Amino acid sequence: MPNNRSQTQDSLYWGKIVDGIAFALDDEGLGMVIVSENRADNFVNILNPSGILGLIGVGQISTSLLLEVHRIGLPMVLIDHEDPLIPSDTVFANNVDSMARLTNHLMGTGHTQIHFIGNIGFSRSFRDRWIGFRSALEESGIRLPLEDDANLFLEGVEEELFQEDFINWINKRKKAKILPTALVCANDRTALTVSDILKEEGLNIPGDISVTGFDNIEDATRGVPLLTTVHVPKEAMGRAAVEKLLSRIHHPSAPLEKILIAADIVHRDSVDGPRD
Fold this sequence. Notes:
Layout: H1 14-27, H2 40-46, E1 55-58, H3 63-72, E2 76-79, E3 89-93, H4 95-108, E4 114-117, H5 124-139, H6 163-175, E5 182-185, H7 188-200, E6 210-212, E7 229-231, H8 234-250, E8 258-261, E9 264-266
Parallel strand pairs: 1-2, 2-3, 3-8, 4-5, 5-6
Antiparallel strand pairs: 7-9
């Protein structure tokens, strides 16, 4: 697990994935060591390859570290991440299809001015969610040009440092009377922060604007209103990674696989039809 603030075992998202890994390993009578070092040279010193069956990478991991694991020859499975230089098995939620379904749901309730909020360069999952959002709009004949600010690719979303940019963006659109009717956020953390800002700016959710998240972390049920989101089966992703790793250990020459875990919409109170 990378040694950074957002991807830790205490995280409402990543921690559930680690729980799934731990439960699945326990079922097999196996143990695990959690490594939070992100420097390849230190990582090699920490590991004793002869005592480790394989590695499960959780979240973003640097190419240099993955290259070192590949050089050592350890079998590995990556969760919620893939690297174009390092061949490996991967496990993802089905981000594209589930985000497309969520976007179709919004359009089905009458929304046509829908905007995506997130940094699509942050992770493969965020980019896939953007692709699902974009494809649903295009298939419905709704085209939001990339050259304007119809889609807010906020830097700093993952560290929750985007508030000022979002406030400026929403106030600009309020002044021009071109507010979106719905905001599709790349994850729940972004959606909850966005919701707080909208309320501070005097906007009602969902009366003035609907907001959706993604991941279904526990905090999604604590906001006001409760957040409509997509439930990512986080423990199932961890269990799937263990199953794939054990299969890879026993069948090292089998074709690599990208495993997609289905994710479902959770309908709550932050979405309603647009006002006339």
